[in-house]
């Protein structure tokens, strides 16, 4: 039974025509700058979940309870805290120095209509020293589904790898976006644009958000990370100061929980599609706690089976290697070689079969 029971017709559908968000804007599922870049498509997965005003309040209440603890965020490599604490850390992949990170201004703007929760996703490109920089930002109002930001962002460093197969961005596309005025001019402008929509009480939602916040230079403690949320459900016994042993990808979560196929475009990922997918996964987890527990139990069993299979295979490999005849280890494997009574037609596959090795297993490949 779901926590929040609604008619099925309300779960996945387009926003009603003329629907208004709390910010006073008509809800849209596309944006104006698409026309400026006719070669770029920004996908939305299926039909984004629509929440009526009553359920928005309920979902927000439960979403607040899902925000991760400070310890969990630190363990998952989020950069938090005041300057002296931040400066001791190093971004995992982002190129922004930690002393340039900023906490969301401590000003309550709710009276002026700031969003109470925002789902975001970023696309990154590779820069020097194996780091990455922001190249696209999508942000949507978590409760209404309204698109707030959907723009390219001009990288602040020289790009050495556009990662087009994943980012969907090429140098020509970025140049076109910049010249047409469709791109934000830097990660700082992107951060400021996002901050115009929120305050320090706003909840940020997304998949593996630590990487997105790294390229935005943002410290924020009110986070619902769908990768962490689902993994914590699977590994519920692991304390927040210990790393989670595994997290599931957005693509797999969307398929398992929502029945959605995402990230299938041959033009790379869509940040907008991913932001909507993360939003809908979080909503699904809140609406369906029993189904989430069932998914987690199945995932936990699969993990145990996988570990057991690996352990057995490792043990079998070790035992099999110890059973290899000593003379075999000194054998010359050249063409026509003969040694210690082994005939020319000796095959490793014969030995593998005799010792019970898996088909095609090569013990010297480990």
UniProtKB/TrEMBL annotation:
<dbReference type="InterPro" id="IPR047021">
    <property type="entry name" value="REXO1/3/4-like"/>
</dbReference>
<feature type="compositionally biased region" description="Polar residues">
    <location>
        <begin position="321"/>
        <end position="332"/>
    </location>
</feature>
<feature type="domain" description="Exonuclease">
    <location>
        <begin position="116"/>
        <end position="291"/>
    </location>
</feature>
<feature type="region of interest" description="Disordered">
    <location>
        <begin position="306"/>
        <end position="343"/>
    </location>
</feature>
<keyword id="KW-0540">Nuclease</keyword>
<feature type="compositionally biased region" description="Polar residues">
    <location>
        <begin position="1"/>
        <end position="10"/>
    </location>
</feature>
<feature type="region of interest" description="Disordered">
    <location>
        <begin position="1"/>
        <end position="24"/>
    </location>
</feature>
<protein>
    <recommendedName>
        <fullName>Exonuclease domain-containing protein</fullName>
    </recommendedName>
</protein>
<dbReference type="GO" id="GO:0006364">
    <property type="term" value="P:rRNA processing"/>
</dbReference>
<dbReference type="GO" id="GO:0005634">
    <property type="term" value="C:nucleus"/>
</dbReference>
<dbReference type="InterPro" id="IPR036397">
    <property type="entry name" value="RNaseH_sf"/>
</dbReference>
<feature type="compositionally biased region" description="Basic residues">
    <location>
        <begin position="309"/>
        <end position="320"/>
    </location>
</feature>
<dbReference type="GO" id="GO:0000027">
    <property type="term" value="P:ribosomal large subunit assembly"/>
</dbReference>
<dbReference type="GO" id="GO:0004527">
    <property type="term" value="F:exonuclease activity"/>
</dbReference>
<keyword id="KW-0269">Exonuclease</keyword>
<dbReference type="GO" id="GO:0003676">
    <property type="term" value="F:nucleic acid binding"/>
</dbReference>
<dbReference type="InterPro" id="IPR012337">
    <property type="entry name" value="RNaseH-like_sf"/>
</dbReference>
<keyword id="KW-0378">Hydrolase</keyword>
<dbReference type="Pfam" id="PF00929">
    <property type="entry name" value="RNase_T"/>
</dbReference>
<dbReference type="InterPro" id="IPR013520">
    <property type="entry name" value="Ribonucl_H"/>
</dbReference>
């Amino acid at each position: 039974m779901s926590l929040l029971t609604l008619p099925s017709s309300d779960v996945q559908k387009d926003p009603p025509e003329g629907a208004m968000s709390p910010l006073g804007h008509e809800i849209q599922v596309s944006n104006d700058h698409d026309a400026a870049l006719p070669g770029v498509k920004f996908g939305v997965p299926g039909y984004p979940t629509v929440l009526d005003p009553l359920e928005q309040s309920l979902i927000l209440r439960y979403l607040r309870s899902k925000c991760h603890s400070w310890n969990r965020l630190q363990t998952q490599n989020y950069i938090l805290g005041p300057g002296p604490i931040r400066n001791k850390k190093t971004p995992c992949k982002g190129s922004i120095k930690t002393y340039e990170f900023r906490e969301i201004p401590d000003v309550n703007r709710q009276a002026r209509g700031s969003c109470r929760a925002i789902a975001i996703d970023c696309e990154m490109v590779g820069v020097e020293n194996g780091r990455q920089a922001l190249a696209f930002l999508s942000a949507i109002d978590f409760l209404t589904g309204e698109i707030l930001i959907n723009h390219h962002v001009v990288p602040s460093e020289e790009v050495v790898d556009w990662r087009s197969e994943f980012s969907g961005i090429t140098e020509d596309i970025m140049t076109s976006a910049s010249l047409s005025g469709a791109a934000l001019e830097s990660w700082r402008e992107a951060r400021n644009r996002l901050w115009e929509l929120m305050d320090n009480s706003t909840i940020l939602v997304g998949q593996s958000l630590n990487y997105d916040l790294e390229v935005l230079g943002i410290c924020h403690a009110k986070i619902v990370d769908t990768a962490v949320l689902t993994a914590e459900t699977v590994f519920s016994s692991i304390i927040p100061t210990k790393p989670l042993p595994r997290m599931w990808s957005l693509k797999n979560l969307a398929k398992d929980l929502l029945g959605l196929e995402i990230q299938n475009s041959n033009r790379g990922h869509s940040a907008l599609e991913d932001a909507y997918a993360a939003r809908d996964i979080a909503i699904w987890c809140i609406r369906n706690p029993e189904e989430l527990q069932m998914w987690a139990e199945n995932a936990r069993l699969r993990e145990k089976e996988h570990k057991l299979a690996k352990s057995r295979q490792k043990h079998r490999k070790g035992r099999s290697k110890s059973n290899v005849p000593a003379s075999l280890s000194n054998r010359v494997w050249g063409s026509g070689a003969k040694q210690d009574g082994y005939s020319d037609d000796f095959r490793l596959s014969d030995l593998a079969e005799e010792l019970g090795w898996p088909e095609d297993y090569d013990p010297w490949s480990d």
